[in-house]
Each structure stands twice: as structure tokens, then as C-alpha cells.
Amino acid sequence: MLLKVTDLEISYGSKVTVTDANIELEKGEILSIVGESGSGKTTVIRAIMGCLPGNGSVSGGDIIFTGKSLLANTQEQWRQMCGTEVSMIFQDSGNMINPIRRIGEQFIAYILTHAPQTSRQDAYQLAIKMLDDVRLPNPDNVMRSYPFELSGGMRQRVGIAMAMTFSPKLLLADEPTSALDVTTQAQIIRQIVDVRNEYNAAVIIVTHNLGVASYMANKIIVMQNGRIVESGLREEVIGNPQHEYTRELLAAVPVVGGKRYYA
């Protein structure tokens, strides 16, 4: 078992926002966590990443990754793990990139932070390879570009490339398509599936769209008001939903030609 989350409870001060969350994930699997805004989806993956904002904390349960409890990590152990063993793609990677520094400067700095023994030339070549792997045309030009010179989809691909640089075992994606147009959304979703296929990484993707989840996930978790109300294999959740909230989410998926398609 790569990741096992048991009875997870997350609090902000005295307020409990997520309770009784349980997740099991094997290497190479894709899990989608779906639900409306405020249901606790992002809070769960931020807890796994060790980056809960403000006074957020894990107040109950455990997070076991590769057989070890992440809750026992020191700050230095979190720093070493994030970006190498566990990486995250944010909702809009463009907002995570410094707008006044070229992509190449930031990518090289990212590599050297995690692998300080690497030469700048080797870091540059590794960045070029990663940009090429996510099918960005003319990677040299991308490295010379400022973020505002790239489209939203290109910036998101830069984020994916950086996240996968050190072949992490687990990739967390926080609504990575919500800021993109429909065509680019489909491209990014396919890109994440390709990343899983190439690196055999486990993926957890947070989305409010069950259509996206049904396309790419092996397993689906449905969250509502900080609780998991349904979970299971994709075929079970999509084909035979047990909870009324899951049925409501499925009913919101657009219908094409009078028939509803989920996969």
C-alpha cells in the first residue's frame, strides 16, 4: 500500500472541517475526490502534502505513506519529501510562478533546491527534457519566456513538468483544469493520465466534475460537508451510486444526444 489515510480529522482552531476520511491508494492508481466547493477535498490533499494553511492541523487519525506516518515528520523531513516523493499541481500553476522571473530561472532554481549537487547546465538540460515530456513545443523558448508570455494551458504544463521532475511516487492535483477553457482542460487531463502511465505514479485529483473523474480515475471518493459520503471503484460509484448526493452530482453531468456518458 503506497498511501493509507485512516479516520483523518482536520481542524482549524476549534472547528473541525473534515472528519472520518479514509483513503487507500496503490502505486499507479488514480483516485478522484469529487464534491462541491467547501466539501473538504482540497483540505484532505493539503494535509497529505503537509501544507495546511493558517492554523489548520490534523487533529485525529493518521496518514501512512510508504509504510511511515507522515504526522511524525519533522519540518526538515517534510522539506525533503515534498517535490521529490510527493508533488502537487495547483489549481492555477501560473499563480505559483513568479511573474517577473523567466521560466528557466525558476525551473533551474527548483531543481537545484532539491538536488544541490547538480550543475546548472545539467539542471537546464533536465528542465528541457521535462518540458519536452509534457509536449510543450520549443522548450528552449519556454525557458526564455516570462509566465505572462505563455497561455494558461502552457503554464499548467510547466507546473506538471516541475512537479514530475524527480519522479515522485504520489502526485496531488488540486482542480488543475478549473482555470482553463474546455479544450485545454481535456488536454491537461490526458497529460496527467500520460504522466501516470510513464512514471507509474499514484495520482489524487481533486475536482468538482464527476465527468472528469469517471474518465481518468480507478477509484472515486465523493465528499460533502467535510465527510466522505461514498467511495469505491469507478464502475461502482458511477454505475450504481448509493448516496443521493452522488446521484445529484451525476445528474449535473451534461447530456449528449439524449444519453448520459460517464466514461
Characterization of this structure:
Helix 3 crosses helix 4 and helix 6 (152-163) packs parallel to helix 7. This protein is globular. The protein has a domain at 3-93 and 168-251: Rossmann fold. It has helices spanning 41-49, 75-81, 103-114, 120-133, 139-144, 152-163, 182-199, 210-216, 234-239, 244-251; strands at residues 3-12, 15-25, 30-34, 56-65, 68-69, 86-89, 170-174, 202-207, 219-224, 227-233. The chain is of the alpha/beta class.
Helical coverage, percent range: 25-40%
Structural class: alpha/beta
Shape: globular
**How is the largest sheet built, in terms of strand order?**
6-7-8-3-9-10
- Low-confidence spans: none
- Give the distance, in angstroms, between the N- and C-terminal Cα atoms: 26 Å
Total number of beta strands: 10
> What does the largest sheet look like?
6 strands, mixed
Our Rg estimate from Cα atoms comes to 19 Å
Number of helices: 10
